[in-house]
Write a structure and sequence with these properties.
The chain is globular. The protein has 3 domains: 158 residues, Nitrogenase molybdenum iron protein domain (Rossmann fold), CATH 3.40.50; 168 residues, Nitrogenase molybdenum iron protein domain (Rossmann fold); 40 residues, no CATH class. By secondary structure, it is α/β, with parallel strands linked by helices.
Length: 426
Amino acid sequence: MRTLPWRDDPWEMVAALRRLAPPADEVRRAVAAIVADVRARGDEAVREHTRRLDGVDLPADYRLPPAAAGRCLAGLDPAVREALALAVANVRAYHERERPRGWRATLAQGQVVGQEVVPVAVAGLYVPGGLADYPSSVVMTAVPAQVAGVGRLVVCSPPRPDGGVAPGVAAACALLGVDDVYPVGGAQAVAAMALGTATVPRCDVIVGPGNAYVTEAKRQLAGEVGIDGLAGPSEVVVVCDESGEPEWLAADLLAQAEHGAGAVACLVDVGGTRLAAVAAAVGRLAAELGLDSGAVVGTACPDAAAALAFVNAFAPEHLELHCRDAAALVPAVRNAGAVFVGPYAATAFADYAAGSNHVLPTGGAARFSQGLSVDAFCKRVAVVELDAAAAAALAPAVTALAGEEGLRAHARSAALRATPRREGGR
């Protein structure tokens, strides 16, 4: 574990820890070429880029047969199936509580205003995979979409050499009743979902994390399709005091560091009493698990207020509070994707089965965005209803404002409704 000197300016600490860079030119160019090709040639381009990049020849109809996913579910280890079912139940219970609801209200002039909450028709779910297997990503993306009431879910996940998707991913799709599954990954998968092909339905929104090419494809296609955000390397900030358990802290730091390149795992030790012990524990555990601990850093700060000032500047994906009376610190946390309160609330629980969503903002985006929720799959449609009395009451204000802005047709449209209609509607 590397040790960083504490800086009183929280933004200097952020700069020391996070090195954000724009996507490399070669990534931008490669993704732009793939998107343009899928736009022009559809499935033919999807299959060609999958052959070139993944070494897999997809058939003309490359949708995964539901029966194949069903066989993966039937062959799943019973303990894993039970764990998936528990995760689904908890994640569903969490997202049910955030389900948005429409409303109506009558305002002062008599107009009735409100909102209708309408789910998107088709949602695309990108699930990382290939040689890895992430059934939890199916749970975290599909369940809030189902709670939102999305009519059709489309899953794209990188292909295995046999042309299928990772068996755990397929099993999770079968468990959740998701039948539109395609063994396609990378930028071509995002382009296919955003633009639609003869095989892949055009999606209204695409969610889920991926590599640099997936993220860049989402960036380039945003506006043609809704996206949940632009995922970057995983992050955790762990704030502890003298009550922190070094072995637990080390395990939590390494749990994020093992996500790979660019990950940030930072210990902020209030008072500096645990820094050395945690560093030693990180070294032991990394050796035992065969992990690279290079992403783990630690620093000592003078007090909790300083620690939280840094947290709010850094806006981490995950924040753990291993402090006495940790719950009392939560109201001061303004910027974090998720907050884990107390020594028992390890991020690993929420990554899989605690109930909250593990698709969270990274790279400082927690300053202005939130984790994946039902809202990502819904639209709020404004509804306005006026009768003659309300129109007459509002018309003077509307004509005055429209006149000030030089919009004469707007003024006339309101003024016409300020007097009762003549017989015959003329």
